[in-house]
Amino acid sequence: MALFDLPLDELRTYRSASAEPEDFDAFWAKTLQEAREHDLAARFEPAGTPLKTVTVHDVTFAGFGGHPIKGWLTVPARANSPLPTVVEFIGYGGGRGLPHTHLLWASAGFAHFVMDTRGQASAWGGGETPDPVGSAPAFPGFMTRGIEDPETYYYRRLFTDAVRAVEAARSHPLVDAGRVAALGGSQGGGITLAVGGLVPDLAAIAPDVPFLCDFPRAMVLTDRAPYREIGNYLKTHRGRAEQVRRTLSYFDGVHFAARGRAPALFSAGLEDQTCPPSTVFAAFNAWANEDKEIEVYDFNDHEGGGPYQQAAQLRWLPARV
User: How far is CA 268 from CA 114, 145, 203, 262, 276, in A?
Assistant: First the structure.
């Protein structure tokens, strides 16, 4: 696929037309307050892997509604003092998978906390976290579950889980609570942006080709899933477009970016039809901290930079945590 979105010079100045709800901050303050009424109850149990260079903990903590959320905490095998820490969020349809698939950050001397994704993990990776909350009729996938109202929308639960994941990671004695970064690719990048806007004292964030940004443009620019799930829902539920846009405005990465305080490293693929580059730049250009960079992969689709972006993160992150 050739370039289909705005030219790069226009991307660098592009601003989203997404309208921020007047009660955006109040909505999220209430949501997190309700979540914190439940004991975090973070448990770290030995995972019993045959791995020799790392120690892996099987994690359970209370997310949205007090629901149990799983994760892995992986640390270098001989770690005996608090470490800089990476909290990672997973792409659409995936889950925490198996411990041996998460060795990069512990190999670089970090503690690494990866959060399982409620209700997903059956497209790839595998996971163990159900979503016990039902919804009205929705298009298959996750983009339209509970989309009738911000209170019931699926990503309200998932973003809350992610904030609680940072809190769970910080509760472990081998995690330096003042040196925690968040990162992830695609959906994981969108979750990272939400966490970056909701947790004011992160050391850094690194959203890679982030999803869930600039919904008004994404919904009409690309016909790829997962954004296409919204269009397919509206084909059946005619007349609900404004209602849907209102719900999505509470979850738009652009609005979380406006509250971002941490240094940030983004990435975008200029041929990315899943998370179009203009939607990524919308969040990048809105990111409030001026200590921000974006790696641009001119001829790449949604794979972005892949291992090249990981290498960029490995160079960039140690100076910030």
Answer: 22, 27, 22, 19, 8
Spatial separation of the C-alpha atoms in residues 213 and 185, rounded to whole Å: 13
Cβ–Cβ < 8 Å for 111, 74: yes
Q: Is 67 annotated as catalytic?
A: no
Angle (nearest 5°) at CA 320 between 283 and 313: 65
What is the spatial distance between Cα 208 and Cα 274, in angstroms, rounded to a whole number?
13
pLDDT tens digit sequence for 194-243: 999 999 999 999 999 999 999 999 999 999 999 999 999 999 999 999 99
Active site residue 5: no
The residue from 5, 208, 252, 272 that is catalytic is 272
Task: Give, in degrees to the nearest 5, the angle at Cα 199 between 225 and 245.
Answer: 35
Is 131 a known active-site residue?
A: no
Active-site annotation holder among 18, 186, 249, 267 = 186
State the pTM of this model: 0.98
Do residues 157 and 133 touch, judged by C-beta distance below 8 A? yes
Separation of alpha carbons 18 and 245, rounded Å: 9
